[in-house]
Amino acid sequence: MSTVIFTLRRDPDGDRPELALPLVRRTRDPHEGSWALPGGWLDVDEGLDAAASRTLAETTGLEPSYLEQLYAFGAVDRSPTRVVSIVYWALLRADEAAAAAAEENVSWFDATSLPRLAFDHNDIVDYALWRLRNKVGYSRIAHGLLADEFTLAELREVYESILGKRLDPANFRRQAENSGTLIPTDRFRTGSHRPARLYRYDRDVELADRGPLSARH
Question: In angstroms, rounded to a whole number, what is the distance separating the alpha carbons of residues 93 and 108?
């Protein structure tokens, strides 16, 4: 079992945050010394969601704000022995990532520019990125990367980081305000620019549509 966990990290030299993910350096063969996704084995009396949360906490100390099963990867040649991996993907807010305990074998990487990883983990990350970029267009999944209250400019930054392209601010504002998922607050973010209104997501709307299984999560 493995987990792809995304967060936003701002490069001091960059003008917008970048998608990043934690990787764990393997300490034994196969692929000793290579970077890999955090993960572990499923206990015989353990549910999949519980195992994903446990292995993620054990390997990285992280507790994501959003966790969902991604896919099952079972190519014949993905491991020296036949191993089928149930992979989850998760979202972590920037403050949660910053507060995580430092682990000796854990490091953060740009999700779109990774080294060669152990097993088929590069393919897994590519699939998770594809899923995230598709889901952000029809759900409020971006909220998993945001604080509870945010400006529309901060929300647009999340979309731009996920999609890897600039979005027109006026068009984005119009679409966001007409989406039916945002609730304006009476608070404002102040600073060097004109005060910006803070918004929050309507909690009656799910982060993402999980179909008939949603009631079980």
Answer: 14
